Protein backbone atom coordinates (compact mmCIF):
# COMPACT_ATOMS: atom_id res chain seq x y z
CA UNK A 1 0.00 0.00 0.00
CA UNK A 2 2.02 2.90 -1.33
CA UNK A 3 1.99 5.91 0.93
CA UNK A 4 1.15 4.05 4.14
CA UNK A 5 3.39 4.76 7.11
CA UNK A 6 4.55 2.08 9.52
CA UNK A 7 6.35 2.41 12.84
CA UNK A 8 8.12 -0.69 14.15
CA UNK A 9 8.92 -0.47 17.86
CA UNK A 10 11.63 -3.10 18.28
CA UNK A 11 13.10 -4.45 21.51
CA UNK A 12 15.87 -7.02 21.23
CA UNK A 13 19.56 -6.83 22.01
CA UNK A 14 20.77 -9.04 19.15
CA UNK A 15 20.22 -8.25 15.43
CA UNK A 16 20.90 -11.90 14.51
CA UNK A 17 18.04 -13.12 16.73
CA UNK A 18 14.74 -14.34 15.31
CA UNK A 19 13.20 -11.09 16.53
CA UNK A 20 15.86 -9.22 14.57
CA UNK A 21 15.06 -11.26 11.47
CA UNK A 22 11.31 -10.69 11.89
CA UNK A 23 11.93 -6.96 12.15
CA UNK A 24 14.16 -6.98 9.06
CA UNK A 25 11.57 -8.91 7.05
CA UNK A 26 8.87 -6.41 8.02
CA UNK A 27 11.05 -3.50 6.91
CA UNK A 28 11.89 -5.20 3.61
CA UNK A 29 8.39 -6.42 2.73
CA UNK A 30 6.53 -3.26 3.70
CA UNK A 31 9.08 -1.08 1.92
CA UNK A 32 8.54 -3.14 -1.23
CA UNK A 33 4.87 -2.23 -1.00
CA UNK A 34 5.78 1.44 -1.06
CA UNK A 35 5.24 1.99 2.64
CA UNK A 36 7.35 4.45 4.58
CA UNK A 37 8.82 2.32 7.38
CA UNK A 38 10.43 3.80 10.49
CA UNK A 39 12.07 1.68 13.21
CA UNK A 40 12.50 2.69 16.83
CA UNK A 41 15.24 0.25 17.89
CA UNK A 42 14.95 0.78 21.63
CA UNK A 43 18.16 -0.95 22.72
CA UNK A 44 20.18 0.71 19.96
CA UNK A 45 18.68 4.07 20.93
CA UNK A 46 19.40 3.36 24.60
CA UNK A 47 15.84 4.50 25.19
CA UNK A 48 15.18 5.60 28.76
CA UNK A 49 12.26 3.49 30.07
CA UNK A 50 11.83 5.32 33.39
CA UNK A 51 9.27 8.06 33.93
CA UNK A 52 11.21 10.85 35.65
CA UNK A 53 11.32 14.60 36.21
CA UNK A 54 13.64 14.80 33.21
CA UNK A 55 10.67 14.15 30.90
CA UNK A 56 9.43 17.67 31.65
CA UNK A 57 11.35 20.63 30.28
CA UNK A 58 11.19 23.78 32.38
CA UNK A 59 9.10 24.50 35.45
CA UNK A 60 6.79 21.94 37.01
CA UNK A 61 3.04 22.46 37.23
CA UNK A 62 3.18 21.60 40.95
CA UNK A 63 6.78 21.70 42.22
CA UNK A 64 5.67 20.97 45.79
CA UNK A 65 4.46 17.43 45.04
CA UNK A 66 5.62 15.62 41.90
CA UNK A 67 2.84 13.65 40.16
CA UNK A 68 4.18 12.23 36.91
CA UNK A 69 0.80 11.75 35.24
CA UNK A 70 -0.28 15.32 35.92
CA UNK A 71 3.11 16.82 35.04
CA UNK A 72 3.40 14.89 31.75
CA UNK A 73 -0.14 15.89 30.81
CA UNK A 74 0.54 19.57 31.50
CA UNK A 75 3.89 19.37 29.71
CA UNK A 76 2.22 17.85 26.65
CA UNK A 77 -0.40 20.61 26.56
CA UNK A 78 2.26 23.30 26.81
CA UNK A 79 4.91 21.74 24.56
CA UNK A 80 7.29 21.08 27.45
CA UNK A 81 7.97 17.35 27.05
CA UNK A 82 11.56 16.22 26.52
CA UNK A 83 12.88 16.02 22.98
CA UNK A 84 13.03 12.22 22.85
CA UNK A 85 9.33 11.93 23.75
CA UNK A 86 8.31 14.54 21.20
CA UNK A 87 10.22 12.62 18.52
CA UNK A 88 8.55 9.30 19.38
CA UNK A 89 5.12 10.89 19.54
CA UNK A 90 5.70 12.38 16.10
CA UNK A 91 6.46 8.89 14.74
CA UNK A 92 3.27 7.53 16.31
CA UNK A 93 1.14 10.38 15.05
CA UNK A 94 2.34 9.88 11.46
CA UNK A 95 1.98 6.08 11.43
CA UNK A 96 -0.99 4.15 10.04
CA UNK A 97 0.28 0.92 11.60
CA UNK A 98 2.44 0.22 14.64
CA UNK A 99 4.19 -3.14 14.92
CA UNK A 100 5.69 -4.08 18.29
CA UNK A 101 8.44 -6.68 17.84
CA UNK A 102 9.80 -8.31 20.99
CA UNK A 103 10.51 -11.49 22.98
CA UNK A 104 7.94 -12.30 25.64
CA UNK A 105 9.35 -11.58 29.12
CA UNK A 106 7.43 -12.79 32.18
CA UNK A 107 4.08 -12.88 30.35
CA UNK A 108 4.62 -9.37 29.02
CA UNK A 109 6.87 -7.18 26.90
CA UNK A 110 10.44 -6.22 27.88
CA UNK A 111 10.74 -3.38 30.39
CA UNK A 112 12.29 -1.07 27.81
CA UNK A 113 9.21 -1.42 25.58
CA UNK A 114 6.76 -1.04 28.47
CA UNK A 115 8.71 2.06 29.44
CA UNK A 116 8.31 3.37 25.89
CA UNK A 117 4.54 3.08 26.29
CA UNK A 118 4.62 4.62 29.78
CA UNK A 119 6.47 7.67 28.51
CA UNK A 120 5.12 8.10 24.98
CA UNK A 121 1.40 7.41 25.49
CA UNK A 122 0.81 10.32 27.87
CA UNK A 123 -2.59 11.77 28.66
CA UNK A 124 -3.57 14.36 26.10
CA UNK A 125 -1.60 12.66 23.36
CA UNK A 126 -2.90 9.08 23.44
CA UNK A 127 -5.95 9.25 25.72
CA UNK A 128 -7.95 11.75 27.75
CA UNK A 129 -10.86 10.25 29.67
CA UNK A 130 -13.57 9.67 28.51
CA UNK A 131 -11.66 9.62 25.22
CA UNK A 132 -10.34 6.07 25.54
CA UNK A 133 -10.87 2.64 23.98
CA UNK A 134 -12.99 3.15 20.82
CA UNK A 135 -12.78 6.90 21.40
CA UNK A 136 -9.05 6.93 22.24
CA UNK A 137 -7.02 9.74 20.72
CA UNK A 138 -5.03 7.31 18.54
CA UNK A 139 -8.12 5.80 16.88
CA UNK A 140 -8.01 5.09 13.15
CA UNK A 141 -4.57 3.56 13.61
CA UNK A 142 -3.69 -0.14 13.59
CA UNK A 143 -1.44 -1.95 16.06
CA UNK A 144 0.00 -5.46 16.02
CA UNK A 145 2.06 -7.45 18.53
CA UNK A 146 4.70 -9.69 16.93
CA UNK A 147 6.66 -11.69 19.47
CA UNK A 148 8.52 -14.86 20.36
CA UNK A 149 7.97 -17.09 23.37
CA UNK A 150 10.18 -19.36 25.44
CA UNK A 151 7.51 -22.04 25.82
CA UNK A 152 5.87 -24.06 23.07
CA UNK A 153 2.31 -23.63 21.81
CA UNK A 154 0.95 -26.36 24.06
CA UNK A 155 2.13 -24.52 27.16
CA UNK A 156 0.05 -21.49 26.16
CA UNK A 157 -3.11 -23.42 25.25
CA UNK A 158 -6.35 -23.87 27.17
CA UNK A 159 -5.32 -26.33 29.85
CA UNK A 160 -1.60 -25.73 29.27
CA UNK A 161 0.67 -24.94 32.19
CA UNK A 162 0.92 -21.26 31.20
CA UNK A 163 -2.77 -20.88 30.37
CA UNK A 164 -4.53 -19.64 27.25
CA UNK A 165 -2.32 -17.02 25.63
CA UNK A 166 -5.37 -14.89 24.83
CA UNK A 167 -5.63 -13.98 28.52
CA UNK A 168 -1.95 -13.08 28.61
CA UNK A 169 -2.47 -10.73 25.65
CA UNK A 170 -5.42 -8.91 27.22
CA UNK A 171 -3.46 -6.24 29.19
CA UNK A 172 -1.20 -5.45 26.24
CA UNK A 173 -3.74 -5.48 23.41
CA UNK A 174 -6.78 -4.16 25.24
CA UNK A 175 -5.43 -2.41 28.33
CA UNK A 176 -2.62 -0.51 26.61
CA UNK A 177 -3.23 -0.26 22.88
CA UNK A 178 -7.02 -0.41 22.56
CA UNK A 179 -7.28 1.97 25.53
CA UNK A 180 -5.49 4.55 23.39
CA UNK A 181 -7.86 3.94 20.47
CA UNK A 182 -5.85 1.55 18.32
CA UNK A 183 -7.64 -1.08 16.28
CA UNK A 184 -5.81 -4.33 16.99
CA UNK A 185 -4.73 -6.87 14.38
CA UNK A 186 -4.25 -10.51 15.35
CA UNK A 187 -0.87 -11.12 17.01
CA UNK A 188 1.99 -12.82 15.18
CA UNK A 189 3.37 -15.41 17.60
CA UNK A 190 6.48 -17.52 17.12
CA UNK A 191 6.43 -20.23 19.76
CA UNK A 192 9.71 -21.45 21.28
CA UNK A 193 12.06 -20.59 18.38
CA UNK A 194 15.14 -21.43 20.47
CA UNK A 195 14.03 -25.07 20.57
CA UNK A 196 12.78 -25.27 16.99
CA UNK A 197 14.59 -26.97 14.12
CA UNK A 198 16.18 -24.73 11.49
CA UNK A 199 13.40 -25.48 9.01
CA UNK A 200 10.75 -24.56 11.58
CA UNK A 201 12.49 -21.24 12.19
CA UNK A 202 12.59 -20.56 8.46
CA UNK A 203 8.88 -21.29 8.29
CA UNK A 204 8.24 -18.75 11.05
CA UNK A 205 9.95 -16.10 8.95
CA UNK A 206 8.18 -17.17 5.77
CA UNK A 207 4.79 -17.11 7.48
CA UNK A 208 5.40 -13.53 8.67
CA UNK A 209 6.56 -12.42 5.24
CA UNK A 210 3.49 -13.94 3.57
CA UNK A 211 1.14 -12.35 6.07
CA UNK A 212 2.67 -8.92 5.52
CA UNK A 213 1.84 -9.12 1.82
CA UNK A 214 -1.86 -8.78 2.66
CA UNK A 215 -1.64 -7.05 6.04
CA UNK A 216 -3.66 -4.04 4.85
CA UNK A 217 -6.58 -6.29 3.94
CA UNK A 218 -6.95 -7.68 7.47
CA UNK A 219 -9.85 -6.82 9.76
CA UNK A 220 -9.13 -5.89 13.40
CA UNK A 221 -9.92 -8.43 16.10
CA UNK A 222 -12.58 -7.98 18.77
CA UNK A 223 -10.85 -6.58 21.86
CA UNK A 224 -13.82 -7.25 24.17
CA UNK A 225 -14.80 -10.87 23.44
CA UNK A 226 -17.50 -12.48 25.57
CA UNK A 227 -15.28 -15.42 26.52
CA UNK A 228 -12.97 -13.17 28.51
CA UNK A 229 -15.67 -12.24 31.01
CA UNK A 230 -16.87 -15.80 31.66
Automatic annotation (TrEMBL):
GO cellular component assignments: cytosol
Domain (Flavodoxin-like fold) ranges: 4-212
Record's keyword terms, sorted: Oxidoreductase
Recorded GO MF terms: dihydronicotinamide riboside quinone reductase activity; metal ion binding; NAD(P)H dehydrogenase (quinone) activity
Domain of life where this protein originates: Eukaryota
InterPro entries referenced in this protein's UniProt entry, alphabetically: Flavodoxin_fold (IPR003680), Flavoprotein-like_sf (IPR029039), NAD(P)H_dehydrogenase_qn (IPR051545)
Record family assignment: Belongs to the NAD(P)H dehydrogenase (quinone) family.
Name of the protein this chain belongs to: Ribosyldihydronicotinamide dehydrogenase [quinone]
Organism, scientific name: Pogona vitticeps (central bearded dragon)
Biological classification of the source: Eukaryota, Metazoa, Chordata, Craniata, Vertebrata
Gene: NQO2
Amino acid sequence: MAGKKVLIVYAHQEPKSLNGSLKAIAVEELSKQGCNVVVSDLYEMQFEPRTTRKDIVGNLYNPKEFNYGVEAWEAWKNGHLSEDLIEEQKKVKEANLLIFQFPLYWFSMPAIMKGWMDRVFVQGFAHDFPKCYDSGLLKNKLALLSFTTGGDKGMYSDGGVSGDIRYLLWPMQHGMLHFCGFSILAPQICFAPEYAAQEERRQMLTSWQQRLKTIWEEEPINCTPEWYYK
